[in-house]
């Protein structure tokens, strides 16, 4: 039986930017609460985001205890103070463990939760994936961001699977990390009028905006501050301008995410622009001097940091 459709009314419509801020940890692994509040304020006041994904992959939710998840949610509640909605990632391998995290997030004041398919189980069936979302959604019926990341969960949530999920869980939006243009097109055709389909990969960001998707959930573009909203103006750009924008964002996101083990790069970038992002938690190591030098050069190249652009040797 379908859930109450009132739960599917999304708070997000139109041109939406939802980044996933990193969680600052000290060298000894301790959570840096005041620093996290400062990072959140940057996202809300400077970047002017439409929402946030807390404790996501780059927020190192996978490395947090349940008590730490409660702490970061409570810090978010106090800092955001209702200015934007946000989702707390509650993904764990089992539905039971995910429900336990969702209950803690709800008790701490979360406005929504984020859940992905099985992050460990290989070759999960469609029924197993749908049942997982159904169990969590019924136990904690907060607005839900469905996170489709086929490379992390070993299962691609196709449009017809999302239809089944949305019939049994309070889906508010989709973060789609699939980079296949055909998949993005089909997902938007099937669900774009029901709730926002948000691009979750650097390669699909600009193409998805051109197709009319609801916006994007990503890490890296927030380094541009409020000017990140230029991506919503691609329809009015010339082909050359559009391509230059696409290339710029891919280069910055690559430097901040994929030239090192996430979230070392995005933490390093935020530290470079003056925010206390801390260091990654074990087993991820901070940037090496060479990685930091490359990241700095890319940030200087695109005006995120001041400095001289040096020619390649």
Helix and strand topology:
Blueprint lengths: L15 E4 L13 H15 L4 E3 L11 H15 L5 E4 L5 H14 L4 E4 L9 H14 L4 E5 L1 H4 L5 H10 L2 E6 L4 H11 L5 E3 L5 H7 L3 E4 L20 H20 L5 H9 L16 H13 L12
Parallel strand pairs: 1-8, 2-3, 3-4, 4-5, 5-6, 6-7, 7-8
Structure overview:
The chain is an alpha/beta fold. The protein has a single domain (about 5-235), classed as Aldolase class I (TIM Barrel, Alpha-Beta Barrel), CATH 3.20.20. About 40% of the residues lie in helices and about 10% in strands. The protein has helices at about 35-45, 65-80, 95-110, 125-140, 150-155, 160-170, 180-190, 205-210, 240-260, 265-270, 290-300; strands spanning about 15-20, 50-55, 85-90, 115, 145-150, 170-175, 195-200, 215-220. Strands 1-8-7-6-5-4-3-2 form an eight-stranded parallel β-sheet. The longest helix has 20 residues, at about 240-260. The model is unreliable at about 1-10 (pLDDT under 50).
